[in-house]
Automatic annotation (TrEMBL):
<dbReference type="GO" id="GO:0006241">
    <property type="term" value="P:CTP biosynthetic process"/>
</dbReference>
<keyword id="KW-0067">ATP-binding</keyword>
<feature type="binding site">
    <location>
        <position position="57"/>
    </location>
    <ligand>
        <name>ATP</name>
    </ligand>
</feature>
<feature type="active site" description="Pros-phosphohistidine intermediate">
    <location>
        <position position="133"/>
    </location>
</feature>
<feature type="binding site">
    <location>
        <position position="9"/>
    </location>
    <ligand>
        <name>ATP</name>
    </ligand>
</feature>
<feature type="binding site">
    <location>
        <position position="130"/>
    </location>
    <ligand>
        <name>ATP</name>
    </ligand>
</feature>
<dbReference type="GO" id="GO:0006183">
    <property type="term" value="P:GTP biosynthetic process"/>
</dbReference>
<feature type="binding site">
    <location>
        <position position="109"/>
    </location>
    <ligand>
        <name>ATP</name>
    </ligand>
</feature>
<dbReference type="GO" id="GO:0004550">
    <property type="term" value="F:nucleoside diphosphate kinase activity"/>
</dbReference>
<keyword id="KW-0479">Metal-binding</keyword>
<keyword id="KW-0460">Magnesium</keyword>
<keyword id="KW-0418">Kinase</keyword>
<feature type="domain" description="Nucleoside diphosphate kinase-like">
    <location>
        <begin position="1"/>
        <end position="156"/>
    </location>
</feature>
<keyword id="KW-0808">Transferase</keyword>
<feature type="binding site">
    <location>
        <position position="120"/>
    </location>
    <ligand>
        <name>ATP</name>
    </ligand>
</feature>
<comment type="similarity">
    <text>Belongs to the NDK family.</text>
</comment>
<dbReference type="GO" id="GO:0046872">
    <property type="term" value="F:metal ion binding"/>
</dbReference>
């Protein structure tokens, strides 16, 4: 089942954007399966952005991510096609795309290059204060979910609205 990892960064929390950001994923129809407020240590922030080690902004970026509480979330897509077609190949809806769509929803890394209507496009200005993080692919999503959450913190449940979202 495809899942992505989303975090509202310390600037998003400080600026009171938690509800606006969660509302976008919720209203789109994605289901939240894990959420918590955490204040990451510098060490933890370095692990999270491990792939950017060596970049000139790495120290500032990890100082920033560890500067205050972060809202960590895992919203996967609801079951979708399997609701109406029980013989559907799970692969079909695994590829359905909360990772890619989540990134589209978030917008470009630089908020001024993000389209209006995207989260960064609507709420942010600077690249170093872009309020939200989203996994950039299936592998990173898996690693990030495992870094931020214990398996028992990720819930599985049915939503009555699923049948109104998927034909
Ligand atoms: P995340 O969702 O946070 O991972 O952002 P991203 O995937 O859009 O970008 P990337 O993973 O390449 O970079 C991670 C974060 O580092 C970005 O969100 C920015 O805050 C920061 N960053 C990336 N490039 C730059 C840069 O050129 N300058 C500065 N100051 N920060 C950067
Ligand atoms: Mg990234």
């Amino acid at each position: 089942l495809e899942r992505t990892f989303i975090a509202i960064k310390p600037d998003g929390v400080q600026r009171g954007l938690i509800s606006d950001i969660i509302a976008r994923f919720e209203k789109k129809g994605y289901k939240l399966v894990a959420i918590k407020l955490v204040h990451p240590t510098k060490d933890f922030a370095e692990k999270h952005y491990d792939d950017l080690k060596g970049r000139p902004f790495f120290n500032g970026l990890t100082d920033f991510l560890s500067s205050g509480p972060v809202v960590a979330m895992v919203p996967p897509p609801p079951p979708s096609q399997s609701m109406s077609n029980h013989t559907a190949d799970p692969q079909v809806w695994e590829g359905q795309g909360v990772i890619k769509y989540g990134r589209k929803f978030i917008g470009a890394t630089a908020p001024l290059a993000s389209e209006p209507g995207t989260i960064r496009g609507d709420f942010a200005i600077s690249v170093g204060r872009n309020i939200i993080h989203g996994s950039d692919g299936p592998e990173t999503a898996k690693d990030e979910i495992a870094l931020w959450f214990k398996p028992e913190e990720i819930l599985s449940y049915k939503k009555e609205t699923d049948k109104w979202l998927y034909e």
